[in-house]
Here is the input.
Amino acid sequence: MARKHMVSNPKMVLFTVMSVALAVAVIVLMMGLMEGYRGEIIKSTVENNPHIIISSKENEDYISLYRTLSSTVWDYPDVQAVSPRLLGKAGAKYKDEVRGVSFVGADPAQEDPLMHVQEDVVEGDYLDLVFKKHSAILGTKLAEELEVKPGDDFYLIRMNRSLKLEVVGLIQTGTGSDESLVYLPLEAAQDLMDQGDVVSQVGVRLGDIYAAPSITDDLNARTSYDVKSWQDQSRDTLELLDTQKAIMYIFYFLVFVIAGFGVANAMIMIVSRRTKEIGILMAMGTTGRSIVQIFLTESVIQAPPAALLGCLMAYIVARLIEAYPIEMPSDIYMVSRMTVTLTQEVFVYAVGFAILVNLAAGVYPAYKASRLDPVAAIATE
Amino acid sequence: MKHRIDEAGVWNNNHIIEIVNLFKVYRGGVDVKALDNINLVIEEGEFLAIVGPSGSGKSTLLNMIGLLDTPTSGKILLKGIDITQISADERARLRNRELGFVFQYHHLLPEFTALENVMMPMLIAGVKKEEARATALQFLEDVGLGDRINSRPNQLSGGQNQRVAVARALANHPSVVIGDELTGNLDTKTSDLIYDLLRKLNKKINQTFILVTHDTELAEKTDRILRIVDGKLVCEMRREGDRFVSTEVCQTAEAE
Ligand SMILES: Nc1ncnc2c1ncn2[C@@H]1O[C@H](COP(=O)(O)OP(=O)(O)OP(=O)(O)O)[C@@H](O)[C@H]1O
Ligand SMILES: [Mg+2]
Here is the structure.
C-alpha cells in the first residue's frame, strides 16, 4: 500500500537513529575487542608455544626414543621444526641471590626454528649455546633479579646436583616467562636431571597452525605418546574467554534494552502525535494489522542507517585504537596490547542487532496505535 | 442494484440499516444518555436527514452507524450483518467498503494532498494506484476542486477541505454515505453543487445518504427527516410529492 511515512520529523528520527547507532557501535567494538583479544591470545599461544607437544607415555616420566619420534614427526607435511626438549624446575644461584627457574634444555639449532628464540634474544649471542656446552640464556627479568650479566657464571641447582653455567645472552619474550626462563643446551640439562639421554617432550612447529589437530589425532592413534595440539593447550584460556562471553552477552543485552527504550520512547511519541491521523485512517477502514505494520515498518526502516552509522563509528574507533595502541599489563591479560578485530560477521550481527532493537521497540507502540479508539483518536487535536 | 445479498446470503430485504433498541451511555462523572432507545430502519437508496439541537446525539448516532463507536446496548444491522458482533478486521473492512464518512470537521490527513486524501480509502481497499488516481480526480472535479488537487489541507479553506472530505467519502463507492454537517461551511451555491452531486449518485447508483444538518433548506430537499432530541427519536417526516408528512409520534412530540 502506498502510504507516506507517518514519521516526518527528521530531528526525532535522527535521535533514534543515533541512539541505535551508538549501541551498535559499542557492541561492534566490544565484539571486535573480544575477537581481537582472542586472536592475540591465539597468536601469542602459537608464537610462544610449540604447535604440537608430544609428551612421554603414560606411566613414564621421559621420552628416551626421541630421535625416532622426531623423524616420525618430520614425515608429516608442512612441519617446520621438531625439537626434543627437556624441561624442569631448578634453583638459580648467583652470589647471594637465589631464584626458582623453569629451564628448557634443547638443541639450539632445533629449538630456534621451533620457538624463534633468536628473535627474542636482546643481549648476547644465541649461537653461543651451540658452541659452549655449559652456557645458558636467561629471561631478562630473571637476570635483573639475580643481578647477572652476560659473561657471568651462575649455578643451576637441582636436588643434590649443581651445574655451573655461563650467561651468554638474555631473552625477552614479553610474557611472564621472562621472570623464570632459562635456556640451556640439551646435554647440560640432561646432566642436571641425571636421567640419561632423555627428553620430557618433543615440540613441533607447523606451517599451518590449523593442521595441528589432525596431526595430533593421527599421532595419538599411531603412537602411545601423549600428544597435544596448541588448541588443547590453550583450551583453558579460550574456555575462560567463553565464560567471559556470557558476561558480555548480559552487557550486550543491557545495551540492547537501553537503546530499545530510546527507540520505544520516540515511537510512543510519534504515535501520540499521530493519534488523530491514526483515527482517520481507521475510520477509512485501515485494519489494526495495517496500523501495526505501518509503525513497525517506520521503526525497522531506521535500522539499516543506524547499523551503518554504528559500524562506521566502531570502525573509526577501531582504527584509532590501532593507531594509538593501548598498552595492557601482559601478566594479567597475557597479551600486551589491545587489538580490535572487526570481522564481517560482526557487521552482520550489528545489522541484525539494529533491526531487532527497532523491531522489539516498535512492537508495543505499534500495538498501542492499533488499539486506539477511532472516535476518541479523531477527536484529539 | 449492487450488494443486494451479502456473502452469507442472509440479507435479502431492502433494509440497508436496521437499528434495534439502541442505547449509548457515556459514563463519566455523570452518565450521559447520548442515545436513548433508538429504533430505526433505513432502506437502500434512501436520502435522509437527521436534525436536532446541539448535543442531542446526532454525531453519536452517526458514529454508531459508521462503525466508529460501539453501542452500550442494542443492535445495528448493516445489510443484515450485526455489526456489534463482528471482529475488528471485519469492521475495518466494512468501514472501508460499505461506508463513506464525512465528519463534522473535515479530518483530512494534513501531510497529504487533496488528491492523496481522496485516493486513500481506495488504496486501503487495494485498488490500483492509477485507477484510484483517476477516480479521485473525477470526484475532486465533481466537487469543484479540479484545480486544487495538489493542495494540502492547510492550503485550502474550510469549505474546500469539506469538499475534499466529501470526495473522499464517495471515492470507494460505498453503499452508505454518512455526512455530519457536510455543508456547514459552504455557501449556498457550493452547498447546492454538493447536494446535486449526492442526489445524482443517489439516483444513479442507488447510494444511501444519511446527512446530519442544521440547514433546514438542505433537510427539506431530502426524502425523510428524523428529529433527535436528548438522544430520542422524537419526530419523523416523509416526503410525499412536494410536501412532508409527519408521523404520529411527531405530532405528539410537538404538542407537548
Ligand atoms: N466521548 C464522550 N464522552 C462523554 N460524553 C459525550 C461524548 N461524546 C458525546 N458526548 C455527549 O453526548 C451527547 C450527544 O453528543 P453528540 O456529539 O452526539 O451531539 P450532536 O447532536 O452531534 O451535537 P452537535 O450538533 O453540537 O454536533 C452530548 O451531551 C455530548 O456531551
Ligand atoms: Mg455533532
